[in-house]
């Protein structure tokens, strides 16, 4: 927890980032954020699908509201507590792309289901969970919407075969407190040299299973939900929904999450692949998220210690990327490019940075850093700031991890 964000001196609307804000700070650039919101919503609309962004990326209710205002059908969350955080901040349709396990978690959802305006769907992949959910929600006198999760061998959750899916549908039908509303899969665990072929095959199997379940009369909805897609392969999933010509039979829902702020690492690379596959897309997403920090020490030539570490920025999918340097207290027209510098290691509160030849730094200079895998940067912060092109703070926002 960043105590400075809770004390006097925290960022306020009207503050100037390089002059008034206690660093390190989590920063989102408004122009890039707005571009990403519009870009992904248009992509999904043009694909004939609906968008339920994965909120676990940011757990920022202010971003949830902007995603919904731009046309998102609902939000995806990963747990009962995340769902409650979204609900208390006004979200009224949630896909929980996970199994609801454990009576305390079930009780959280049951409490929200007392609100008739709350549309909630969770995943199931095993008869034991189906039985436990059926018994619990029967005692509460409410029905729970469930979707069968279909997975891949060696992957994450989900039934591993078509036979398991069909048997699970029968188990759900035997529980009056449960309603089968769709089928879900997650393709992001498919890797390797033949990943594209594997993802296409998985998506084809997912849609075929939806058809088989509907033909069997297993669904409680006239137009059941078919959903997949993380932040890397959403274009391939969207294409499969068209390939089998089932638009009128099913509600196709895509669930990317990281697009909202994008990144300078793994999702930047994934976006390049999307643009290579889809020549009709003239531009892609833009990185909107940065962490800003001071140069803390220059103890050796060519070596800088930055006042930012594992407590501030993701490091699981690559080191932070230096972007620009600003002089502390000097309102800039633009920063100096320091992308030739390299972060080589991070400790709890420090980052080690090799200083590129010709780059002159001073203690107290401010460096903006791009990140890879934004999910694990957001969860290190209680607050952040949204800034305009002039680096003035437009608003502050809170996370709810």
3D architecture notes:
The chain is α/β, with parallel strands linked by helices and 401 residues long. It has helices spanning 17-20, 30-46, 61-69, 80-88, 103-113, 127-140, 162-173, 195-215, 234-243, 266-277, 375-378; strands spanning 25-29, 50-51, 75-77, 93-99, 119-124, 144-150, 178-185, 225-228, 251-254, 289-300, 303-306, 321-326, 336-337, 342-346, 351-354, 366-370, 383-387, 393-398. Strands 1, 10, 11, 12, 13, 14, 15, 16, 17 and 18 form a ten-stranded mixed β-sheet that branches.
Write the SSE topology.
Elements: H1 17-20, E1 25-29, H2 30-46, E2 50-51, H3 61-69, E3 75-77, H4 80-88, E4 93-99, H5 103-113, E5 119-124, H6 127-140, E6 144-150, H7 162-173, E7 178-185, H8 195-215, E8 225-228, H9 234-243, E9 251-254, H10 266-277, E10 289-300, E11 303-306, E12 321-326, E13 336-337, E14 342-346, E15 351-354, E16 366-370, H11 375-378, E17 383-387, E18 393-398
Parallel strand pairs: 1-17, 2-9, 3-4, 4-5, 5-6, 6-7, 7-8, 8-9
Antiparallel strand pairs: 1-10, 10-11, 10-16, 11-15, 12-13, 12-16, 14-15, 17-18
Largest sheet: 10 strands, mixed
Number of strands: 18
Q: H/E order of the elements? A: HEHEHEHEHEHEHEHEHEHEEEEEEEHEE
**What's the CATH first level of the largest domain?**
Alpha Beta
Strand content: 15-25%
Helix content: 25-40%
Helices, by number, come to 11
> CATH homologous superfamily name of the largest domain?
Alanine racemase
N-to-C terminal Cα separation, in Å? 11 Å
Mean pLDDT: 94
- Structural class category: alpha/beta
As for the number of domains, it is 2
User: Which regions have little confidence, pLDDT < 50, spanning 5+ residues?
Assistant: 1-9
CATH topology of the largest domain: TIM Barrel
Based on the coordinates given, report the CATH architecture of the largest domain.
Alpha-Beta Barrel
Radius of gyration based on Cα positions: 23 Å
């Amino acid at each position: 927890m960043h105590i400075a964000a809770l004390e006097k001196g925290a960022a306020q609307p009207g503050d100037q980032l390089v002059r008034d804000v206690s660093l390190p700070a989590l920063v989102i650039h408004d122009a890039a954020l707005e571009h990403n919101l519009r870009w992904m919503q248009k992509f999904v609309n043009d694909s004939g699908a609906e968008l339920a962004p994965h909120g676990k990326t940011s757990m920022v209710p202010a971003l949830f509201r902007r995603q919904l205002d731009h046309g998102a059908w609902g939000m995806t969350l990963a747990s009962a507590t995340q769902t409650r955080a979204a609900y208390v901040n006004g979200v009224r349709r949630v896909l929980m792309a996970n199994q609801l396990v454990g009576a305390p978690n079930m009780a959280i959802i049951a409490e929200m289901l007392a609100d008739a305006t709350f549309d909630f769907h969770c995943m199931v992949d095993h008869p034991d969970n189906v039985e436990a959910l059926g018994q619990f929600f029967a005692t509460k006198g409410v029905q729970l919407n469930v979707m069968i999760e279909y997975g891949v061998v060696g992957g994450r959750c989900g039934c591993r075969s078509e036979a398991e899916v069909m048997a699970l549908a029968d188990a759900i039908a035997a529980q009056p407190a449960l309603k089968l509303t769709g089928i879900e899969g997650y393709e992001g665990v498919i890797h390797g040299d033949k990943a594209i072929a594997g993802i296409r095959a998985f998506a084809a199997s997912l849609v075929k299973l939806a058809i088989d379940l509907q033909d069997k009369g297993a669904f409680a909805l006239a137009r059941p939900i078919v959903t997949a897609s993380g932040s890397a392969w959403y274009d391939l999933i969207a294409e499969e929904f068209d390939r089998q010509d089932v638009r009128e039979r099913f509600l196709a829902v895509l669930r990317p999450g990281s697009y909202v702020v994008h990144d300078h690492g793994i999702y930047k690379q994934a976006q390049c692949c999307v643009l290579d596959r889809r020549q009709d897309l003239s531009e892609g997403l833009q990185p909107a998220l940065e962490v800003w920090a001071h140069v803390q020490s220059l103890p050796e030539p060519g070596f800088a210690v930055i006042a930012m570490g594992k407590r501030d920025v993701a490091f699981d999918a690559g080191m932070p990327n230096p972007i620009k340097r600003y002089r502390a207290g000097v309102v800039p027209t633009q920063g100096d490019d320091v992308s030739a510098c390299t972060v080589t290691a991070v400790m709890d509160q420090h980052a080690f940075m090799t200083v590129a030849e010709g780059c002159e730094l001073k203690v107290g200079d401010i460096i903006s850093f791009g990140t890879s895998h934004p999910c694990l940067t957001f969860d290190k912060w209680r607050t952040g700031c949204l800034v305009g092109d002039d680096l003035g703070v437009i608003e502050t926002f809170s996370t709810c991890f």
